Structure formats: structure tokens, C-alpha cells
Amino acid sequence: MKLDIIGDVHGCYEELLLLINQLGYQFVDGILMHPNNRKLAFVGDLTDRGPNSLKVIELAYQLVIEQQLAYYVPGNHCNKLYRYFLGNNIKLQHGIETTVEEYKQCPIEKQKIIKQKWMTLYEQSSLYEIITELNLVIAHAGIKESYIGSYSNKVKTFVLYGDITGETLPDGRPVRRDWASSYHGERWIVYGHTPVLEPRFVNHTVNIDTGCVFGNKLTAISFPEQRITSVPSKQPFIKEKFQ
């Protein structure tokens, strides 16, 4: 099995298409094909902040649900949009307001289609994906070795938000422990969630959220080669978003 795992897209549809093309994929009669029979995977946070979240939803639905050519695991932004569509009282801040604004600009029939696609994509996803053939786990914000195989609320919080302490930084972001530095498992953990300027390799973990929506780049890692492929962002660069 050969897999290309893409970091947090956050509505950056044009960059996503460029990266897919850079990885060697092409659409043939509407079906995404690769000459070496590779598959795609998304590490979560498909929407919010960027300019084209709805197009990203439609493409992910096509690849994951309709064509079954890609894996998808949800991120915290995915979870929030799902709760919004459930009718929960969600604060429209930290990015979701851009997706909701896009959604509200659509005709009612288009809104129904988008909502149905998102609910289906989210409900049919696994909290994290264990790829046994490649000895790796895809989890949005990472996962502890001892959590693999468990789907408790504690594990869900970790996978969606990282190893949070309960404290917040001055800008409102949660304080997170560096769980990767103490990870000693044999399986690779591929994750995103926290923007970094370059893919961060620590032990058998790699963070591939290179902050496309904040003006850096969109990145994929290919297994088993452990090859990095990136395309530059078309968004304005916001230096303070990177750690």
C-alpha cells in the first residue's frame, strides 16, 4: 500500500488541487487516478478560515465517500462544523464563521446538499485511522501510544485538541504539552493541528500542518517513502500563527 497524507487544508481549495496534482494524481472521467495506485488521506480540519471550504467539503466527499479513494479523519474544526449542522449553539469564531458565511450565501437546495455531504463524511469517519500495512496512525492532533485502540471521551479530546492543560495563552489558544517528545512507539503517528513552518519530525511522529491558511504552504507526507511534498500558499503570511 502507498499513501499520501495531506495536512490541514482549512478551505485552501486551490492549493489542495495543486498538491494533489504535484503528487501525481489526475482526474480521469471524474475519477481520481494515480499511475502507481496510491491513495490519499486527510488529517482533518478541511474547513474554516480559508476561502473555499465548501469546495473542499465536496471534493473530500467525492474522494472518501463516493469513490472510496481516500481516508479522512476529523479535526476539531470538523467536529465544530458537525455540531453547527446538528443545530447546537456554536460560537461563530476561530474560523467557523467563514464557512458559515459561505454556506449562508448558497441557495437553499445547495445548502441541503452541503449539509448532507458533511454529515455523512463526518459520521462515517473514524476518530483516527490505523493503517496496519504501513505501521502508522493518522490522528488530527496526535495520539498517545497507550490510547491507540481506545475511543473514550478522553481519547477523543486528545485526538481533536492535543494534549491540552486546561490553560490558555493570551490570544486565547489552549496551552498544549509536547506529547510527541515522549512518544516512543514503533508505529508512525501522522498528525497536524498545530501550524509549523516545516514538517516536524520527533521520534516516530510527524506534524504536517504547515499552515497553508496562514500563508506558508500545504504539505503531504508519502508512505512508505516518508517523502515530503509541498505547494506554496496563496494566502497572506501571518508570522505569529507559527510555533
UniProtKB/TrEMBL annotation:
InterPro entries: Ap4A_hydrolase, Calcineurin-like_PHP, Metallo-depent_PP-like, MPP_PrpE-like, Ser/Thr-sp_prot-phosphatase. It comes from the Bacteria. Transmembrane segments: none annotated. Pfam families: Metallophos. Residues 1-196 form the Calcineurin-like phosphoesterase domain. This is Bis(5'-nucleosyl)-tetraphosphatase PrpE.
